[in-house]
User: Which sequence fits this backbone?
């Protein structure tokens, strides 16, 4: 049986062929350490790193590409920003939809006396900008929010929240793990000061890649210090970008792949990808939304019942659909999808317990279907047939 | 160093731009080439800068034009030196 991979929100698969080709070329013909020497292999590696940074800057509308620093994943990027921005006694605002990559650092900081306000999201999983405004205090030092929930795919109004934060002078850190490469992001227009992204999801790069855009001087302290290839005569950490935040040898082979992934996204067009994802979501909704056996979550559940209100769905929800089948546990549905139909999904809690409490699916969780740029309408019909068969069996 | 730049006589390029980090050196090289200004990445000469491992050799006569371009495109550099090949 040919398997069907629908766990792109965890990591995307397949990747464009150019991603592997780019990594292969670096492995065979490149291989140097960027910024460490003036010979061809070192310069070749540095060129790859710069090129990937510039492609990312183009995708995210970052004016100065040196303000994008590479990390091993979005979690590391979030940790750099959170620990670097939260000073003594600072107050932090976040939402109830956050992934543990945000919740765990914040819980740790609470143990050290920092105050955290968790803004309650609605049942679809989005946050109202007015609620964020009300949560701000005199000494709030950070607002950290997900761009889109990894559980429901619901996309937040970041431009609206960004405006609130900019007006009040509070830095805004966005977790774009679920949206970079899937949903248009413009750090200038959306007033985003810091953006953490994953390289191996929507950006189609290999695992072990990610990064942080640092758009404000308020973040000046890196989490790690070490060799950068620059200022080699000194034992203090460089104060310039990107070196200050990039200690130790970079994952150049991964960054080579990431560059090819971003290039694919730019060539196909971010709006075209969002439309593709939204189109497949519509297809799922046409089949599942008025069927009482299914409980759907996310913005499509709010608005999906009336097809005419589904316009712009692609900018309201990523290529993610969380659901449950009446009378069946998510783990049972996931197991049947996998073993009997070859459909690979993620079930249960998706590293975001608070998000599941918000949408009312704690502790059992959901069945999460998440597609990507290579998923087809035929794939969606196959999943729908499998779901109907599973629901049918349960009824009989 | 690219194959093409190996054919350039470095003695004709008497200027050297030094940088704090390699990101900006690579960007400078690409930017100058796009503006049809000859630029060659070289190992950074220790005598003029202890900083980044790479520097850019260029035509020193075009210093002001190069300075303006780098500033306009937010390429941060340490200094520009008159430093002929020895």
Assistant:
């Amino acid at each position: 049986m040919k398997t069907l991979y629908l766990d792109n929100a965890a990591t995307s698969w397949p990747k464009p062929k150019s991603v592997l080709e780019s990594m292969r070329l670096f492995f065979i013909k490149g291989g140097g350490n960027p910024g460490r020497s003036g010979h061809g292999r070192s310069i070749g590696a540095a060129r790859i790193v710069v090129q990937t940074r510039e492609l990312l800057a183009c995708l995210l509308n970052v004016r100065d590409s040196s303000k994008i620093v590479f990390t091993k994943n979005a979690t590391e990027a979030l940790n750099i920003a959170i620990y670097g921005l939260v000073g003594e006694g600072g107050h932090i605002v976040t939402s109830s939809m956050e992934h543990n990559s945000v919740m765990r650092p914040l819980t740790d900081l609470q143990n050290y006396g920092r105050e955290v306000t968790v803004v309650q999201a609605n049942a679809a999983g989005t946050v109202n900008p007015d609620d964020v405004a009300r949560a701000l205090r005199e000494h709030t030092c950070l607002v950290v929010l997900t761009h889109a929930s990894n559980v429901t795919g619901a996309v937040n109004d970041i431009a609206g929240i960004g405006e609130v934060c900019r007006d009040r002078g509070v830095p805004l850190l966005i977790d774009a793990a679920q949206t970079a490469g899937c949903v248009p992001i413009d750090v200038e227009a959306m007033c985003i000061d810091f953006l953490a992204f994953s390289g191996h999801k929507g950006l189609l790069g290999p695992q072990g890649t990610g990064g942080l855009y640092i758009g404000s001087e308020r973040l000046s302290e890196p989490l790690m210090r070490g060799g950068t290839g620059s200022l080699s005569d000194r034992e203090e950490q460089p104060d310039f970008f990107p070196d200050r935040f990039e200690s130790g040898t970079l994952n150049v082979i991964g960054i080579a792949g990431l560059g090819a992934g971003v290039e694919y996204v730019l060539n196909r067009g971010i709006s075209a990808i969002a439309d593709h994802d939204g189109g497949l979501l519509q297809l799922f909704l046409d089949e599942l939304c008025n069927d009482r056996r299914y409980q759907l979550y996310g913005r499509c559940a709010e608005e999906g019942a009336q097809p005419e209100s589904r316009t712009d769905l692609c900018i309201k929800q990523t290529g993610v659909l969380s659901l449950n089948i009446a009378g069946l546990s998510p783990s049972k549905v996931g197991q049947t999808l996998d073993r009997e139909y070859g459909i690979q999904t993620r079930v249960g809690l998706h590293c975001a317990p608070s998000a599941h409490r918000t949408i009312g699916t704690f502790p059992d969780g959901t069945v999460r279907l998440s597609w990507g740029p290579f998923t087809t309408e035929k794939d969606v019909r196959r999943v729908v047939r499998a779901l109907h068969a599973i629901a049918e069996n349960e009824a009989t | 160093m690219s194959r093409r730049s190996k054919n350039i006589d470095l003695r004709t390029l008497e200027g050297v731009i030094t940088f704090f980090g390699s990101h900006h050196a690579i960007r400078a090289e690409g930017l100058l080439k796009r503006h049809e200004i000859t630029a060659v990445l070289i190992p950074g000469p220790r005598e003029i800068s202890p900083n980044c491992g790479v520097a850019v050799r260029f035509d020193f006569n075009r210093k002001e034009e190069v300075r303006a371009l780098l500033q306009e495109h937010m390429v941060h550099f340490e200094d520009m030196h008159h430093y002929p090949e020895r």
